[in-house]
Design brief:
It is globular, with a radius of gyration of 23 Å. 28% of the residues lie in helices and 23% in strands. Strands 11, 12, 13, 14, 15, 16 and 17 form a seven-stranded mixed beta sheet that branches. It has a four-stranded mixed beta sheet with strand order 1-10-9-8, with no helix packed on it. The chain folds into three domains: 147 residues, Periplasmic binding protein-like II (D-Maltodextrin-Binding Protein, domain 2); 112 residues, Dipeptide-binding Protein, Domain 1 (Dipeptide-binding Protein, domain 1); 201 residues, Dipeptide-binding Protein, Domain 3 (Dipeptide-binding Protein, domain 3, Roll), CATH 3.10.105.
Length: 495
């Protein structure tokens, strides 16, 4: 299979490589390859991680932010004070911060952004991040006091999400196509279907970017991604979509292949309210019908770590529960018979564009067929997936990676697209949110991991790897992806 994929490319590229030194003509600019194009450019009103992939830290900033190691560091807020009861956060903002249109960013913008995110009519995809806020006060131009209904040990973490970035009220009307942030890069041009170009912000309040220009090119096809890198058209491709071609890069001194981790729990998501899928025994049968090792080998060419619940294996509080849903097709058949589906049933398997979903879907379809479940594959573009699956809940099964960090709390939302409705789980997450003691939080989050695994809410597949193919001269790219972002703020060309 690998030979069939590579051979056509090699015939075309051999001549190209003889004349292509893969050196950037302009050492002040860089072109980054990404597989997915954002549906629009407002990170505060959509669930598409492709928006943050381009804009997080580059164009938009929040009160806090994720560092490359996943820690929470100051963003627009330079410091904060937490009240003794843990329910009041007082943030002091950095001085001399301006939006890209020249207007001053101050406490009133923070108040506007957070009030907008938590408003009744808010379209923020992570509205739950703001649900505990009872008031936001601009006590002076540089100070914001946020009062919560109870202590929340994750609040600083929540404020680092791309959904919590600070926006200017006057820019909201055009934010979906012309985003105006405070970051080290300014949105210059969006050529839809092809690329987004960012330019260096000459008036940035913090450490300036080292590059004058960054171009994000969107290349959905894995073979095209390979060809673009080999031809020198792409300088780096984080989240590279064609792992079968990595040996060619690994043996070439012009490139570096860096395999890191992400926060992306790749799951076979199950609509818990759709016919047979409402039965826990059926969901357990689906989980036991899937051979994770075969899936990782076939769809990811052995890149990826099996998971048994919705939690990242690199996290210190991770609980390995893979044995609860170990591959056992005979057990799957018995569970189906017990649930009244001895002859199987039919459902939909709706697949978004990423290669892990498309390739993985075909493998899972075949594995489910072995136990009597017919999964009809429907391939969707992201806009269709968001409309039909995420918002419309019109699906049986789907494959997607949830790249938001520490997002096990989504299972406490009965209206989320899984439609998992467990009062016990909601109570558990409520207690977790109000707990600050690290040891107690560890116990609670491990209990949460076990509960959704035992309920077989979804079939948990593997942790999405961060495969980075980079020109050997590119420095400063993130190895791991603690959030879905391509942070270009410290990236440069090595002399």
């Amino acid at each position: 299979m690998i030979t069939r994929i590579l051979s056509p490319l090699c015939l075309v590229l051999t001549a190209v490589l003889l004349v292509s030194p893969l050196m950037a003509a302009d050492r002040n600019s860089m072109t980054i390859g990404l597989q997915l194009e954002p549906p629009h450019l407002d990170p505060t009103s959509a669930a598409a991680g492709a928006i943050d992939q381009v804009l997080y830290a580059n164009v938009f900033e929040g009160l806090t932010r994720f560092a490359r190691d996943g820690s929470i560091i100051p963003g627009l807020a330079k410091s904060w004070v937490i009240s003794p009861d843990g329910a009041v956060y007082t943030f002091t903002l950095n001085e001399n911060v301006r939006f890209h249109d020249g207007s001053v960013m101050d406490a009133s913008d923070v108040k506007f952004s957070l009030d907008r995110a938590r408003a009744e009519g808010s379209t923020n995809a992570q509205k739950a991040l703001f649900a505990g806020i009872t008031s936001v006060e601009a006590t002076d131009s540089q100070t914001v006091r946020i009062t919560l209904d109870e202590a929340n040990g994750q609040f600083l973490f929540n404020m680092a999400w791309g959904d919590a970035v600070i926006v200017a009220e006057e820019s909201i009307g055009a934010i979906r196509t012309k985003p105006v942030g405070t970051g080290p890069f300014i949105m210059e041009r969006w050529q839809k279907g092809d690329r987004i170009i960012l330019s260096r912000n000459p008036d940035y309040w913090g450490e300036p970017a080292r590059l004058d220009q960054v171009t994000f090119r969107f290349i959905a096809d894995p073979n095209a991604a390979y060809a673009a890198i080999m031809a020198g058209d792409i300088d780096a491709f984080p989240g590279y979509p064609a792992p079968e071609t990595l040996p060619g890069f690994e043996s070439d001194p012009r490139f570096r292949v860096i395999a890191g981790s992400t926060e992306g729990e790749t799951i076979l998501a199950i609509n818990n309210q759709a016919g047979p899928l409402a039965d826990q025994r059926v969901r357990a049968a689906i989980a036991h019908a899937i051979d994770r090792s075969a899936l990782i080998d076939g769809a990811m060419f052995s890149y990826g770590v099996p998971i048994g619940t919705h939690f990242a294996p690199h996290h210190p509080d991770y609980l390995d529960l893979t044995q609860l849903s170990a591959y056992a097709p005979d057990k799957a058949k018995n569970l189906l018979a017990e649930a009244g589906y001895a002859n199987g049933f039919e459902t939909t398997l709706k697949l978004p564009p990423p290669s892990y979903a498309r390739r993985g879907g075909e493998i899972i379809q075949a594995q489910l067929a072995q136990v009597g479940i017919t999964a009809r594959i429907e391939t969707l573009e992201w806009a269709q997936w968001l409309e039909q699956v995420f918002r419309g809940k019109d699906y049986g099964l789907t494959i997607v990676s949830h790249t938001e960090p520490y997002d096990i709390g989504i299972y406490a939302r009965p209206d989320y697209y899984f439609q998992y409705d467990s009062p016990a789980f909601r109570d558990l997450i409520k207690t977790l949110s109000a707990t600050n003691d690290p040891a107690r939080r560890r116990d609670l989050v491990q209990s949460a991991q076990r509960m959704i695994a035992e309920d077989n809410v979804n079939a948990f597949l593997f942790q999405l790897p961060q495969i980075n193919v980079i020109n050997a001269g590119v420095m400063g790219m993130w190895k791991n992806a603690p959030t879905q972002a391509t942070d270009m703020t410290a990236v440069y060309w090595q002399d």
